[in-house]
Every structure is written in C-alpha cells, then in structure tokens.
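I have a small job for you when you get a moment. Can you supply me with one protein entry, sequence and fold together? It will help me judge whether the discrete encoding reads sensibly. Write everything out right here, beneath this request:
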Amino acid sequence: FRSREPSFGNYGPVSKNDVNVKWNLGEVDDDYFPYDKEVIFLEDEEFTSNSKGGEEKTRTMLVYGGDVWDKGGADLYVIRQLLSLHRRYPHRVHFLMGNRDINKMRIVDELGVPSHNLPGEKAPLPYHGGVYWLRGTGFVGDPLVQRQIMDITPHFKERSTQSKFRLVVPSESATERLKWMLGKTMGSVDAFEFRRSELKKERLTILNSTSSSNKLRGSKNYHYSHHSYEVMEGIDLQITDEEVFQSYIRSCDPSTGLMGEYLSHAKLIIRFGPALFLHGALPFSIAVEDGSIVLTSTDFEFPTPWKENCGTSNHSTLLEWMNDLNQFASSQVKSWKEYGVELSKSHQPSRDGVWATDGGYFNDTPGGKRFGALLQYGMGTLPHHVKNTSVVYNSWMSDGMPRSELFCDKQPDGKNPVGRFM
C-alpha cells in the first residue's frame, strides 16, 4: 500500500516459543492506486539469520489501524485489497476499528438498506431527529431546532415552506441526506466527491482494459453487465449523484457490503507479544516500569461504559478487559447485521427515530437497542459533552507530544505512528 508515511517495524521473541513479528500500520491517505492490480506482499515463510549464525522464523503480518475510508479517494480499492489479503491470510492480516469505520454503521439506521433505496425509486426515509453533537448549535441537524420546527405551531405556519424546513435534516432525497451525513456529521466533507472520482476511475480502468479486445473493436455499443451500465461511443462518462449514493448504500450494507465484511473481522484492540495495537489510546493513565505497563489512574478500573454496572468492573487484568472489549464489539456488529436483514424483509424504513438524535449507550430506538452502544463507543464525547472512555477516540498526545509506549493509529506523527516500540 502507499500511505501517508507507511510505518514498518518488528520486535523479537520474548520467549523461546514466540516468533519475530513484522508489523505495518498507518492510515492510507493517497490519491493514486493501481486499480487494475492486486496487492500481494505476504510470503508464506521468511527465514533470516540471527546473531548466533542460525536461522530465526519470521512471520510477516499486517495490522491495519482503522479509518479505512474517507481519505485519499480510494476507499473501495483499499478495502477490497484488505479483505482479499484477509481471505488469503486470515491469521496474519488483522484489522482495527476506527471511528470512521464504526460511524458507517449509521448508514443503515439513517438511510435504510439497499432494498429501501432502489435506483430510480423515491422511497420514504427513516425519520431523523438530528444528531446529539449538534444540539444547541442552530445548524441543520440540531435536535432542538428539529423538534421545534416539526412541532407544527402557528408561529411556523406563518413561515414559507422553504424557510420552515431550511434547518430540517434532509428527508426528501436519500442522496441529499447522505451528503449531509458525510459532510456535516461525520467530518468527511470530501467523501462523496472522492467516491464519485473513484467510481469514474474504475469505469475508465474497465474501458481501458477491454479497449483492445477484438470483440469490442469496431463496435459502437459496449455493454458491461458486471457493472450494470452501458457505455455508448461519444457519451461523457460522468458519475451521477444517484450512482454515488447507490455505491455507498450497497458498500455499507451490513450483510453484503464491504464495510460489513471489514467490521466482521475488525477488533477494538489487538495484542501480539509485548505489542498492543489500538486506534486511539487506552482510556486510563499508564506508566512504564521495568518494561511493564503499570496503570496509574485511580478514578476507574478497566472502563466498560456499555454495561449498566460500568463503574464496578470485575476485570483484574488488562487481558481480561481486552477480551471483554472485543467480545462487546463483535456482538454489536452481529446485531447490526441481523438488524439489516430484518429491515430488508420489512420493505419499510423505521419511523421510530435514529440512534444519533439522543445517542448514549442505552438508547431505546430500534437501531440504538441493537448496535447503538458500539456507535457511542466510537465517539469522542457522550451526550451533554462528557468525555467518552473509549480506546477509539482517546489520545496519546500531551501538549502536542507523544506520551505513549504503545502503537496506535489515530494521530500519525511524521514517519512513525504515535507511540514508540517497547
């Protein structure tokens, strides 16, 4: 992969039963990828000589640090290559959940599933009451403004329809709602146009790869059934808003989408020997004494905010807490996928609200009950602007400088990810 600054390294065995492990992590952030090529870089076995003149077994591995989409304009290419690598090397390719991966679970909650949004059809959208992190801002999506406007009072009846609904979450067009979600609620202002550009590159790549075919040479009408579009000689190959929307809704489908497959394999935290990988930072203070991690926070122990009794965690070791953390994430992704199947069978989107309006770990909307806890875990703050105790959105930075001894991928720093090898 080409990334902002790919960071490679390795650590040696800590016991006679361990093997050397090479790692790579770094958010992909580049606008050029060879769309007609497949990434193959993992060899079955590698042997390197050691200082004693013998050979040491080295296992090449990939740890991808999350946030697979929204940067660089190659979302589909990168995620397909990652998933392809995982299928071929399931025990040596590992994914972390980033906040930009987790927030794509909102797509099914706020837009529905592909069967609710068929091309050329105008279907009703799920009712949307805004997002809690815009509460009090007065912007489109402020739940206070949304509720006030939707409360049909004489005050608002006096206003024109255009003025009345100017601050309401887009509900007439699924495409416009997606643009608003990406640009105004996910911090992905360029994502929609990036996807359009990538779809065009894919289309041109297909045309270029087949232009020398004898079957097509001399023909004025080309039809590529695999991508379900027709190319006529002389027609401008522009990607419409509807095509971009269909790409997003399908790639975010919990059951069959690329992001659904990625999240099925991803974890919140990964450990190999003495190395710990996570997207953000541990949600408690640490110190390193004689090469070992020592927890220094006295405010809480191993936070599990998704549990009702989160203030009284029973975990006595970091490993127990890590296992609980990953089991929580896995169960939430499973529920998300089941919810998508149920929506597909219903043929109608939910009208009972969305998780994002009130947020929280114990949200009572249909989607919130199923997977809202993981959505909340991927956020930096809780409702009412309280800091979230999450490994996804915490930071190792202190006054602009790294304060960690672990690997994370939330804030790359020059050539190396934040965190130092221990």
About this structure: The chain has 13 helices and 18 strands. The radius of gyration is 24 Å. The first strand starts at residue 7 and ends at 11. Confidence is low (pLDDT under 50) at residues 1-36, 152-165, 219-235, 413-422.
